[in-house]
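Worked Example 4.2. Consider the chain below.
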Amino acid sequence: MYNKTVTPVYCKTSDSINTYSGRKLTNKKIQTEIFYPESDGKPMAENTTHYELIVKIKENLEILFADDSNVFIAGDLFWYPVEGDNKTKYAPDVMVAIGRPKGQRGSYLQWKEKNIAPQVIFEIRSPNNSTREMNKKFKFYELYDVKEYYLFNHTSNKLEAWIRYKNKLKQLSEKEISNWTSPELNISFEVTDTLNLYYPDGRKFKSMNELERERKSEKLRAEKEKKRAEAEKLKAEKEKKRAEAEKLKAEKEKKRAEKEKKKAEAEKLKAEKEKKKAEAEKLRAEKEKKKAEAEKLRAEKEKKKAEKLEAELKELRLKLDQY
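Applying the procedure from the previous section yields the following structure tokens:
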């Protein structure tokens, strides 16, 4: 069993009283405070089934409207519809106020909530709830503008539902309930061995244990995915570094090859130049040789000519001597 926390809430109101000061009677207004209890000291639920159903409905509705900041959902919270009246109140097992912001409240003071009444109410009837008590609750919800009221008796495993029609709460038939989707919440209902509720996408409302297991499983999956992503990132970074090293090596090799090519081209150019120089030297040598040979031939020819001339002169002297 869980008891609601008792925290007093006071709201100010004005009353006119007579006070006497000296000889003069005056009327003064003083501020009095009205106490709006946040607890009646009664347990939230009478058994574990009762409690688990309340928590399942409340927490799954919180999940459904997690992204909508203007949907307030509460469990076992006193609702005061009338300012200045702390007697008229009820604490529905679960209530949904669409158009009111999320946040902590000790009770739902309707006049402080832009006078918006909770539109949807869920009650889980326990064995100790009398028919008279449930009728009083029904009249309260009908009087104070509840649009949808769902009552599940987990002992008899029966769901009853009412929808506002012409300023009254009209009860749905069993056939209507079997195919019913909440106009305000867009959730659907099914009664098997217990009450089942379904999200708009068809997913089933889960118990706190199931949600916790799912949360842990999701956390584990997320951690595993994070580790996998980190490993992939590390692998990618390693691959990037390897690729950069390969690129650097290739660029270095390219530069070395270009340098070798330039060197080879320079060597080739030098060799060609040397070859041309050698060929020029050879040509010059051959030319010199031919020139030398020509000189030698000319010299020999001159020699022969001189020798012939000498011989002729000698012969001429001999002839002259004979005369």
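The longest strand covers residues 10-21. Residues 1-7, 13-30 have pLDDT under 50 and may be disordered. Compare this with Example 4.1 before moving on.
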